[in-house]
Structures are given as C-alpha cells and as structure tokens.
Amino acid sequence: MKLQMTGRIAVATLAVVAALGMSACGSGDKHPTSHKTATSKAAATSAANVPPVPTVDELNSELTKALDPSVPAEQKAQWLEDGQDALAKDPQMMGNLTNAYQQNNAKITVTQVQYLGGDTLTAKADFSVNGGAPNSVDVPFVAQDGQWKLQKSWACAGLKNLGQESPACE
Q1: What domain range is 24 assigned to?
Q2: Where are the strands (E) in 32-170, listed by range?
Q3: Does residue 106 contact residue 129 with C-beta atoms inside 8 Å?
Q4: 150 burial class (0-12, 13-18, 19+ CB within 10 angstroms)?
Q5: I need a labelling partner for 157 at 20 to 30 A (CA). Which of 15, 38, 45, 169 fits?
Q6: What is the pTM of this model?
Q7: What interhelical angle do 93-103 and 2-21 show, nearest 10?
Q8: pLDDT tens digits, residue range 154-167?
Q9: Which residues on adjacent β-strands are paired with residue 137?
Q10: Longest Cα pair distance anywhere in the chain, in angstroms?
Q11: Total domains, the chain
C-alpha cells in the first residue's frame, strides 16, 4: 500500500512540475538578494535574454491553462526546456502528465517564486493528492528563448522515478 501511495505522490509531483513548467513568463521584476547556483543546458543564456520573474499569482493563473486537457501539447511544449524537441520525440509526454494530474485529483498552489540569479529560478509550491495534506516541492526553471521554462532534466528525472521512460529524455 505504501508503494502505491508513493507512486501516486510521484505522479502528482511530476504533473505539478509539468504544470508549473507551463507558466512561461511574468511581469514581476523583483529579484531576491539570495543567490544560489544551479546548472542546466540553458546555462549559457545571456543576461539580456532573461525574462522578468513571474509572480506567484501569475504562476497560479497559468496553472489552470497548463492543466487543461483541451490545451494542445504543441502549446504546452513551449514551456518546457527544449520542449519542441521533446514533443517531436514523444508526442504523448504532455498529455500523459496532464492525465496523471487529473486521475490523482492533484491540487497545486504556488507559494513563492525565488530568482536564483543568472538564468535560473525556483517555484515553491504546495500540492496534494486525493484530498491529502499538502506537500512542498521546489521546481527549477531556466531561461530559454526569452521565457522561463521547466528544466527538462528535472521533468525527466520525475518520469524515471515513476518507472516510465520517454524518448524525449534520451
């Protein structure tokens, strides 16, 4: 039973991560003074190409659209690091994540957005599965093509933790 619940939490976490990744950019301009380091494929992005940091309200607003099954995968792909390449390699990836979110009655609320410097930020969020107590998760984003995008390696690690593989992660 514990393994089944862990799997559901992992599915919900992955879906939450994907959903947060759908929030491309915002108009917030506050950059907290604490800086942390992070690495990603987009690390070489120039400072001139870093978009404004999105606000909590903007991320929460985008979640509704990002988790809507009627929004095409092509639109959602723009919010994942190297998303068009991922979509070309695995057209079902985005839909599978949205379905997992809905099937597990997952709820998500972004509570904080922290700019980490350079081309990285983290969204902190509370999420719950099937009416359970909220858990906290940190979701990494990278600036790519003038937008904040969900870090692909983090999304792929989530898929792997679920025992799933995606050609997009190879």
Answers
A1: 2-169
A2: 107-117, 120-128, 135-144, 147-150
A3: yes
A4: buried
A5: 45
A6: 0.70
A7: 130
A8: 888 766 766 677 89
A9: 125
A10: 50
A11: 1
